[in-house]
Amino acid sequence: MIRTAKLVYDYIKRDEEGNVEEVDRAVDHVDLDVEKGDFVAILGHNGSGKSTLAKHINAILVPSEGTVWIGDMDTRDEGHLWDIRQSAGMVFQNPDNQIIGTIVEEDVGFGPENMGVPTKEIWERVDESLKAVGMTAYRHHSPNKLSGGQKQRVAIAGVVAMHPKCIILDEPTAMLDPNGRKEVIRTIRALNQVEDVTVLLITHYMEEVVYADKVVVMDEGKIVMRGTPREIFSRVDELKQYRLDVPQVTLLAHELKKEGIPLPDGILSIDELVNALCQS
Amino acid sequence: MIRDITIGQYYPVDSPIHRLDPRTKLIGTLTFIISLFLFKSIAGYLVATAFLVTVIRLSKVPFKFMVRGLKAILLILIIAMLFNVLLIRDGNVLFDKWFIRITDQGLYTAAFMAVRLTYLVIGSSVMTLTTTPNDLTDGLESVLGPLKKIHIPVHEIAMMMSIALRFIPILLEETDKIMKAQIARGADFENGNLIQKAKNMVPLLVPLFISAFRRADDLAMAMEARCYHGGEGRTKMKPLHYGKNDAGAFVFLLIYLAAILAAKQFWIIV
């Protein structure tokens, strides 16, 4: 579905004469393979290159070296640009800066309008996408009057209406309060499980990663860890080295284990910890 | 509080005028404005007044909302009237002292011009009061469509207008936030004379501009990510449709035009 091979991206800073002053390697030889229907989380500290990587997947950026394939389309091929953007939808961090319409339903219809979908089908798509994110009741509202979580769900609906094969979410919860964050994550999980949309979630909140099928940890442009959430979270000390926090329960279990209490590695939920403690 | 400000001055009621296609209203307003300059007779003014009163009645918008728009042009109105009164020297002299000479001709012209300007403003506010900003931009895009042939980017202009409308409340809120943040740091927006006050705005405007540019950048990226590539090959979610009402409106407009042209023949006052 999504495949990158030896992907490299350099931010090049030039002085006034156009000479290269500084080269900043944001993504460094990244190989990534996402299967259809996967829920992949990309974790990383600020400046780890995760957002730059995300922008490659719907061809906002093109690689300096290496290749990115969406399905069998190379993102460097200009002829496929709109097909790529249609099949890999993107949701950004700031909900205010990605809503174009002055009414919720008009914003959801923006993508299909651009794709030249016939009017009748636009309405069908808008109806079903608003339903998928649970925002049907707000369809005639102005986006300015919605909460952050609701706005972000509208933005997700706007991408869903384009019928993408995968959705890339670039820190969709970074500007939201805890309630909004839960709302958005629930929506994303529902899309992945019910509609079978491939999801690529970029975040630095560890709690959100728990539901993913695969986790990729990035640091300084490189992929440093990959595995299931359980595998990743059992390596607490390594995660700390990349300035990432593990969920509180996992941390507690880890500390208890260090103190000699026999517990399995990579505990992800409170229930799991309670069960494990009762058995030991 | 600040987010409750509605932009444009749309007055939400259900009326035959509200239900008209925005294109009909745009064309109607334009015709009305042009018609105001076609006649010079009292009969013409009576016809125009009758037309305006009928439309205002049909629109169900309280008259005081229409008058609000006049405040903005009051100064221009007074100055224009003064110029007309003082500079027109033909006709019978009513008053003559120093350099001031007032003639009946001057008074007539000034009065009629004031009526014309007032009607012009009221006529266009009927349109903005009965049409949502969105419909207005859609209508504008469609009415100006033929200009695409001479390479005027009509779609882009309409898109810019609707994005501007979407961001006005956001930027207002942001202004509010920055203002409070600067006040907390000791900035003073209240005191001082006009020049000092203007100078004090700098710490407000600089961050506002920076953030507006950042937003513009983000928005452009988000639009491209959603396949926006200009007006070409774009379909409409809410295409405009002329209805039965619009046909009626056009007939009414034609009758009005005929009446105006007929009134032109009655040369009561030249």
From TrEMBL, chain B:
Lineage top rank: taxon: Bacteria
Listed GO MF terms: transmembrane transporter activity
Major subcellular location class: membrane
Segments traversing the membrane: 26-53, 65-87, 107-130, 150-172, 247-269
GO cellular component: plasma membrane
A family per Pfam: CbiQ
Function: Transmembrane (T) component of an energy-coupling factor (ECF) ABC-transporter complex. Unlike classic ABC transporters this ECF transporter provides the energy necessary to transport a number of different substrates.
Family affiliation: Belongs to the energy-coupling factor EcfT family.
UniProt subunit comment: Forms a stable energy-coupling factor (ECF) transporter complex composed of 2 membrane-embedded substrate-binding proteins (S component), 2 ATP-binding proteins (A component) and 2 transmembrane proteins (T component).
The protein's name in its UniProt record: Energy-coupling factor transporter transmembrane protein EcfT
